[in-house]
Amino acid sequence: MEDNQNVYRLQGLSCTSCAAKFEKNIRAIETVEDVQLNFGAMKITVKGDASIEQLEKAGAFDGIKVYPERERLEKPEPFWKKRENIAAMISLVFIIAGYVSGFRMGDESPVTIGLFAAAILIGGFDLFKVGLQNLTKLEFDMKTLMTVAIIGAALIGEWAEGAVVVFLFAVSEALEAYSINKARQSIKALMEVAPNRATVRRGTEVMEIDVEDVRIGDVMLIKPGQKLAMDGEVIQGQSSINQAAITGESIPVHKAIGDEVFAGTLNEEGALEVRVTKRAEDTTIAKIIHLVEEAQAERAPSQQFVDRFAKYYTPAIMVVALLVAVIPPLLFGGSWSKWVYSGLAVLVVGCPCALVISTPVAIVTAIGNAARKGVLIKGGIHLEETGKLKVVAFDKTGTLTEGKPVVTDVIGFSNMDNDEILGVSRAIESYSQHPLASAIVRKAEETGLAAFTATDFQSITGKGAKASVGNETYYIGSPNLFDEILPIPESVSRQIKDLQKQGKTVMLLGTDREIKGLVAVADQVRKSSAAIIQKLHKLGIEKTVMLTGDNEATGQAIGRQLGLSETRAELLPEDKLESIRTLRGQNGNVAMVGDGVNDAPALAAATVGIAMGGAGTDAALETADVALMADDLEKLPYTIALSRKTLAIIKQNISFAILVKIAALLLVVPGWLTLWLAIFADMGATLIVVANSLRLLRSKE
């Protein structure tokens, strides 16, 4: 983090226009160089010098409280204890008294007018304070428009309507603040997942300290039923750990010495000692929170459209309101009080609240919900693009399959027996990083074979390797490698094809004069893969494609087993990249799903790069647009369904907000648009848009 840059958490920030004003007020502080406000995460980053008192003064108009980032926030005041809500309830008492008085003494009675005036002053005090300040600076937001409308209503004698408008505005503001806080619940829940204190042993001393004071290398003591406060490695004991908070998996995972464990996960039955491997701000849960907050601050394409629209729309509405108030009386002899009243109603109904909030609330809610289910979506743009996917491409090894291939067959074609074939293969492959090589090494170790030694190892990219064993140079690799060295006998070719049809990968071992034998290896298909592919097709994904470096026969065998639309085999990393580009050219939006380590170029080239196993690998978190924290594809259909639902909700919100405005403005023509109907239309639209977005909180898998 740069010098002189501080991050603060906010409480009480109620609307997007208040956020913009708060940011503007902070920029006006002379010692502040730059400021960035994240409305979704309720965070502000201030570059330069500014005290908390100065920041709170800048947000006094909205009652904003400011806290240093690492400090836990106070519990927000209950809904019914807030000063503005109490004022609204007192205002309602005066309104009811005003209507009773009007019924008995008449609307023109000084008592009736006095009661409504008291309702306006008590309920609208905070509103007028901000509205009049804005008016002097010619800043036109909802509070300015409302202030003008209510003062105007009082001037033309509409005291009762002015009072009702004040009350309805206060109620809708309170409900909107409540709804937006609800939308932020998912991120708050994530922040409270990890405990803020840990029990640590240093030398012989055991102490309970704040997580900020825990050092790398400290040993944490975890009792049964306790949550882990830090990421680390188990050095003593074994237990089942519920990792749902990180990966979204509900089934606990068994952990023993040497296994990685994460902050915020729940230790079930055993006692553990864990060596801390990361500082509090670098833990997986801290990274998730940081990425989710960054994602919520990103503007989605639909939000950018709405922001541009609102910029021109608000001044246009003000001009329309002025014309409605002035033209009929001036040109057509209309009644001034009637048309000024209609102009005030246009002002109120024209405020773009519902429109401005239509997209951010939906995106904040969806990203937060996904994070709680173990899916990291790194921005509104990726959420929208995932919702438009037509094609999903998968890397095979470790994604559709377990990624731990096993040796299934060893067959000799010469005077070398099977043990010798496996032993020589193991000697060469022990230098290689390839998953197939590790399968051979594992098999040889399990069999307990005598060790051979290889020298002069040389990798042959994409095809195999060669090395000297004894005083002979051996080659091991795909049949393609041997095609270049010597002709493969017909009988060997037949056996190779038979094994490949069974979905096995064949590696030949031989010299430049003779093929000595073969080793067949098969990667186990994940149990859930076929069901997930089926779900994706049901969701309307038009095409599922597997990209693999395996030979054609093996690739096709696995593709058929899983029910994929297409299989592209024998691909080198650059071919995978080319395949993604081709698929994008043919089909538009394409997702690439991989493990995020060796698939980085293809993940980057896809419209949406989806990495799985994010909980263990930083590479997956950094490369991908979407990270599935668990090491399986279970959450993929849920992610696509959530993204589609979010897109649908954003479209509904924008359409509804615009239609309500148009319908209300059309009521001006017959003179049916009253002030309280105008605020009902505006606030009703805002609340319906927010409530519609909150449906994403209940989005199930």
Can you characterise this structure?
This protein is 50% helix and 19% strand. It is elongated and about 115 Å long. The model has no long low-confidence stretch (mean pLDDT 85).
Largest sheet: 7 strands, mixed
Report the average pLDDT across residues.
85
User: What's the total helix number?
Assistant: 26
The shape is elongated
Largest sheet strand order: 14-26-25-24-15-22-23
Secondary-structure map:
Elements: E1 5-11, H1 16-27, E2 32-38, E3 43-48, H2 52-58, E4 65-68, H3 83-105, H4 110-136, H5 142-155, H6 159-183, H7 185-191, E5 197-202, E6 205-210, E7 219-222, E8 232-236, E9 239-242, H8 244-247, E10 253-255, E11 260-261, E12 266-267, E13 272-276, H9 284-297, H10 301-332, H11 336-349, H12 353-357, H13 360-372, E14 375-377, H14 380-387, E15 391-395, H15 396-400, E16 406-412, H16 418-429, H17 435-447, E17 454-460, E18 464-469, E19 472-477, H18 479-485, H19 490-501, E20 505-510, E21 515-522, H20 529-538, E22 543-547, H21 552-562, E23 566-568, H22 573-587, E24 590-594, H23 600-605, E25 608-612, H24 618-623, E26 626-628, H25 636-666, H26 675-694
Parallel strand pairs: 15-22, 15-24, 22-23, 24-25, 25-26
Antiparallel strand pairs: 1-3, 1-4, 2-3, 5-6, 5-7, 7-13, 8-11, 8-13, 9-10, 9-12, 14-26, 16-21, 17-18, 18-19, 19-20, 20-21
Helix pairs in contact: 3-4, 3-6, 4-5, 4-6, 5-6, 5-11, 6-26, 7-13, 9-13, 10-11, 11-26, 13-25, 13-26, 14-25, 16-17, 19-21, 25-26
